[in-house]
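Sanity check record (used in CI):
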Amino acid sequence: CINTALYLPYLASQCLRNGCTISRSILAHIGDASLLHSSGKKADVVVNCTGLQASKLGGVMDKSVIPARGQIVVVRNEAPHMLTISGTDDGDEEVCYIMQRAAGGGTILGGTYQKGNWESQPDPSTALRIMKRAVELCPELTGGKGVEALSVVRHGVGLRPYREEGVRVEKEMVGGVWVVHNYGHGGYGYQASYGTAEGAVELVDEVVGVKAKL
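Expected output for D-amino-acid oxidase:
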């Protein structure tokens, strides 16, 4: 699977290569982003990819966006296959999958899908269940030696930007500023990113095309 520690810097480098300027700011309202263009002029359109913060950002305030908490364990052990099962005996919010990241990124043992849970710290008991399920599903991980033979790199938690109504890719005029929304991907942001990005680009082209005719 994707090694995000390599993939995200690659995406940033591609943006820079194509003339983008990357900066950080704190915004109270989505419309304020239009005043931050590197040219000093007001931007023609703002693309909103704020993920989970779409639920709190002024001008968006999409209350259908909630976290879907995912907890994982990263280990050095290698699995012969990428594996997943559709359910577990530990409740509807817990899942089981084993994915090996490319380029030495370790093996990901998961996990959870806890809607509405904002906890950002790993839970030790959940981690133990994750490891036990993984070893039961794939004994080859430890050569049949059990959980104790797992070489843990780290424990991680991610808050996926889940949206009850599905991904939002649409344009909207907000306070006199054109905004193209692209958020709410839940747990499949990497898989869906290229497709939804193409949809967002089409909407940006529509906005810019309308402005060019005025």
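Strands lie at 45-48, 65-75, 83-85, 94-100, 107-112, 114-115, 152-163, 168-174, 177-183. If this sentence no longer matches the regenerated tokens, the check is flagged for review.
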